[in-house]
């Protein structure tokens, strides 16, 4: 069963409402895609929360080891991890009750997609949040 993302209009509405984005797998290396994408979203006005146990901070923000370490509400969990890691990230996502589970371009895990959708969550996979943000203007 294939995944079916929300429409571009719906994604635009999600991005207009969102304020806090937890980025799972965010690197502190400016040459990495996760850094470039998260930096663009930070520059667009979003609060970025780095989620990576191997870095201390990114953009001057202290990194957390896991989603459950975040204080306060998270609008979007943006994932930069290989597909096989998505089930574990989805478990953590459910524990913090964030609004949207978003796996970056090239990252798809159909079982995780359908499991979260069936529980009523908004799920986006195989889309770049930076590209989608550019379309909403």
3D architecture notes:
The protein is an alpha/beta fold. The protein has one domain (8-135): 3-Layer(aba) Sandwich (Rossmann fold), CATH 3.40.50.720. 35% of the residues lie in helices and 18% in strands. The chain contains 5 helices and 7 strands. The strands form 2 sheets. The chain has a 5-stranded parallel β-sheet with strand order 2-1-5-6-7, sandwiched between helices. The radius of gyration is 14 Å and the shape is globular. The model has no long low-confidence stretch (mean pLDDT 96).
Layout: helices, strands, pairs:
Elements: H1 8-17, E1 20-24, H2 33-43, E2 47-51, E3 57-58, E4 61-62, E5 76-79, H3 86-96, E6 100-103, H4 110-118, E7 122-124, H5 129-135
Parallel strand pairs: 1-2, 1-5, 5-6, 6-7
Antiparallel strand pairs: 3-4
């Amino acid at each position: 069963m294939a995944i079916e993302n929300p429409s571009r209009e719906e994604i635009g509405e999600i991005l207009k409402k969102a304020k806090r984005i937890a980025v799972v797998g965010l690197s502190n290396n400016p040459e990495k895609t996760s850094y470039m994408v998260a930096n663009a979203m930070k520059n667009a006005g979003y609060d970025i929360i780095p989620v990576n146990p191997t870095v201390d901070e990114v953009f001057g923000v202290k990194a957390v080891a896991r989603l459950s370490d975040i204080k306060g509400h998270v609008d979007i969990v943006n994932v930069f991890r290989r597909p096989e890691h998505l089930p574990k990230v989805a478990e953590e996502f459910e524990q913090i009750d964030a609004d949207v589970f978003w796996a970056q371009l090239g990252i798809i895990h159909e079982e995780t997609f359908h499991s979260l959708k069936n529980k009523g969550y908004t799920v986006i996979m195989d889309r770049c949040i930076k590209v989608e943000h550019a379309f909403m203007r």
